[in-house]
From TrEMBL, chain A:
Membrane topology type: Multi-pass membrane protein
Keyword field: Cell inner membrane, Cell membrane, Cell shape, Cell wall biogenesis/degradation, Glycosyltransferase, Membrane, Peptidoglycan synthesis, Transferase, Transmembrane, Transmembrane helix
InterPro entries, sorted: Cell_cycle_FtsW-rel_CS, FtsW/RodA, RodA/MrdB
HAMAP family: PGT_RodA
E.C. number: 2.4.99.28
Subcellular location(s) per record: Cell inner membrane; Membrane
UniProt pathway annotation: Cell wall biogenesis; peptidoglycan biosynthesis
Record-given protein name: Peptidoglycan glycosyltransferase MrdB
Gene name in the database record: rodA
Organism classification: Bacteria, Pseudomonadati, Pseudomonadota, Betaproteobacteria, Burkholderiales
Automatic annotation (TrEMBL), chain B:
Pathway in which the depicted protein is active: Cell wall biogenesis; peptidoglycan biosynthesis
InterPro entries attached to this UniProt entry: Beta-lactam/transpept, Beta-lactam/transpept-like, PBP_dimer, PBP_dimer_sf, PCN-bd_Tpept, Penicillin-binding_protein_2
Source lineage: Bacteria, Pseudomonadati, Pseudomonadota, Betaproteobacteria, Burkholderiales
Family: Belongs to the transpeptidase family. MrdA subfamily.
Source organism: Thiobacter aerophilum
Protein's recorded name: Peptidoglycan D,D-transpeptidase MrdA
Amino acid sequence: MIRRWLARSARHVDGVLLALVGAVLLLGLGILYSASGQDTARVVNQMLNILLALAIMWAVANVPPQHLMRFALPTYLVGLLLLVAVALFGEVSKGARRWLDLGITRIQPSELMKIGVPLMLAWYLDKHEKGLRLRDFVVAAVILALPVALIAKQPDLGTALLISASGFYVLFLAGIGWRVILGLAVAGAAMLPVVWSLLHDYQRQRVLTLLDPSQDPLGAGYHIIQSTIALGSGGLLGKGWLHGTQAHLDFLPERHTDFIFAVLGEEFGLMGILVLVALYFAILARGLLIAGNAPSLFGRLMAGSITLTFGTYAVVNMGMVSGILPVVGVPLPLVSYGGTAMVTLLMGFGILMSVATHRRLVKT
Amino acid sequence: MSRRPEIRDHQRELYYFRIRLAVAASIALVLFFVLLARAFWLQVLQYEHYHTLAEENRISIVPIVPNRGLILDRNGAVLAHNYSAYTLEITPSKVEGGLDKTIDALAELIEITPRDRKRFRKLLEESKNFETLPIRTRLNDVEIARFAANRYRFPGVDIHARLFRHYPQGEITSHVVGYIGRINDADLKRLEEMELLPNYRGSDYIGKAGLEQSYEQALHGTTGFERVETDAAGRAVRTLSRTPPISGNNLTLHLDLKLQQVAEQAFGSFRGALIALDPRTGGVLAFLSKPGYDTNLFIDGIDPMNWQALNDSPDKPLINRAMHGMYPPGSTFKPFMALAALELKKRSPSYTIADPGYFSLPGSSHRYRDWKPGGHGMVNLHKSIVVSCDTYYYGLAVDMGIDAIHDFMAHFGFGRKTGIDIEGERAGLLPSQEWKWKRFKQKWFVGDTVSVGIGQGYMLATPLQLAVAVATLANGGREMRPHLVREIQNAKTGAVTPVKPELISELPVNPENLERVKAAMVDVTRPGGTAARAGAGAPYTMAGKTGTAQVIGMKQGEKYVESRVAERHRDHALFIAFAPAEDPRIAVAVLVENGGHGGSTAAPIARAVFDYYLLGKRPAGAAATEEGAQENGDD
């Protein structure tokens, strides 16, 4: 009976997507083994993270999209509540208030919102599918702005930007007018000085550092300088697995989390990067294909937003490590060490798979 | 959006959605392409640049200091060597919980004197933070064991085996060998200008005086390197390659340590200087400036107490009298004057004067006195040297004129540096009309010339210059550059490079004239001569000339009575000599400060040196004493 159940539930797992994700996960484990200094315990720990995340993905994939919709409002509201709680009672760590201590475990509500915000928006827009008007988009904008503002306040600029992006993708895919987009872009540009004045010193420093890393080679610029050295010295074919000197001699900071891409570039060279980028793009293409074929607006919006957000994560992380984007704390999806991000990502892929595989079921 | 009709058409809706997806996908594609372009730029186009940066990041070059070359005497006796000893060293940047507390805690285990602390503080001020600095050197076994057991309590503190310089002969060779000391800012600047700085990475010491200074480049060797892989914190992870250092070259001197010891003993309690040269090569056989000082005190930075003691000592042990002390040559100048008279045909050997005991310039009542009241009677050139007749030379000097004297004496090395291979030499003073005008804006008077005739007045020479002059005389007018180092041995290959004798100038003298002067100098050491006592019983022929250099001026008509004059104001005794006279193998200049008369104090020292050098005979405790200073003729 269990076998039959497994077989039935396995039908909701998208094979192509799983294969691509699995390939990146395996590649990631290999790099992590090297990046952690051949720390088996850390690799095992990451494998447990992956197994847990895969299980969640499997489970979510089996939830039909129309059921998923029911979680939208509660998830969003709980997430918002937790963010308020963080703002009021959150733990301060490294000068930012991001964590909520629940006694048993500490949670970071902003992670929840990575799924919660697009879910809420897709649900809201789907509910008003019959007649999307300007005021619907305004409401949608408020839905998006509330958590983003709270997260930006923590401060966690990177997450805030990425969640706005995921929300923006929903709005964009739902058909927000080009003029509005253009208007938003202009308004955004006009807001830059205001935003600049609201930034914390260290955030401004990061932007300035991006413009000229050599300004502060031992401070904020250190990360970028060392990671570009790691990448550049990797050359075409890399120094070989476990032979990255930058990584293994401690020059590279945060080398198994946010800067793990530099380890890949150093040890496997341009070829390694090419493989990873190709895999990422294949996942992106597969996700967009699923979105394009989704029968319901909710499915389309969710699948599209999740996929584009995933791509954004990848681009932002790789861009920051290779020194063309400011350093914001964004992990390399499916590769960086860490459980929360892994669960969030695979949960997203679970939704994608649900959208993909429940299509026929809905139709019949 | 308001102008858009209600979206009812699912196909149309999907079409718009797919367009948007396509736009998003295109943007994503472009972004991925940008990333790949960036990676291509970094990893292919800029590869060399970043490869170099990564290498620099991880590889640090750790210098390995070469062993300093040895300094040996002509027979292989060690004058400067290295020994290994354990030092307690502190790396201030790694110390936890305060430097003072650490040192206090260390002091409970290992004796650390206030002097050690003071020296450490001084080093600390001069050093960079990550350097390792010694606080105690020469630990004994018990101290090493005690520290080893407590090492865990002292992060940043370690025991290292280090090589130390040592000068086993101490004072006797101090002014020759010199010493090394810690490299200071001035040294660094000089090394940088000479582009030698890379070879001094890791080196703490550099030659500061004597041969250690002048042969620094030969002695230092070539610094080796270890390429060490380091982590971001600079900790060594492993050694990648090692280029061993090349030890410095060994110096073998002409100097004979035993001869030096004989000379030193012969001085007894007197201060002074002695230079013995091989006239044929210019090789320095003995080089003594007495008193010397313990050069070992200087190696790690002399402490203020010892420094003050040395600096304030009335004996001035830090002054290298042999080449820095300038004295009137006195009567030792006479043989050169005699040779000049013959060469310039101002006197013939048979020319004789009747010496009344003084000399007066025509039309002047001023009397230039002879050292012997009443005079020497009839004096020709030969006798003028043997009895050291002043009157003869007063007249001769006036006849020659100062410029002729100047030009002739310049050939013997007076008035200029001899070019010996250690630094700090002074040029002495060979006066001329031009010099006096430049120096004092004053005209030269004939009276000035009179005093110069007997090596007084403005005339000043260093003992080294006198030695070179007498060696040149002994060598038939060929002036050889005095040099201490005979050969340089490559520590790695063992190959020996001799230092070639260098001819500075050759004065074409008439051998006949030279023989006359030499013969007179031989008679100086025979009965009737001023150094007869010193020359008595010598189985070889010894040629010499005594001299006295006034320390205080005597008033006209006042008599110099030695016993009435404070010891420090007594005349300096001088003696120049060479032997064997017919084939000179050694030439010396001896200066005994406040020794009185050359014949009684300086000449016996030369005799002792000759006896040892030519016969291998050690004097039986024949130290010159003040007792013996009264005897014998004078000058």
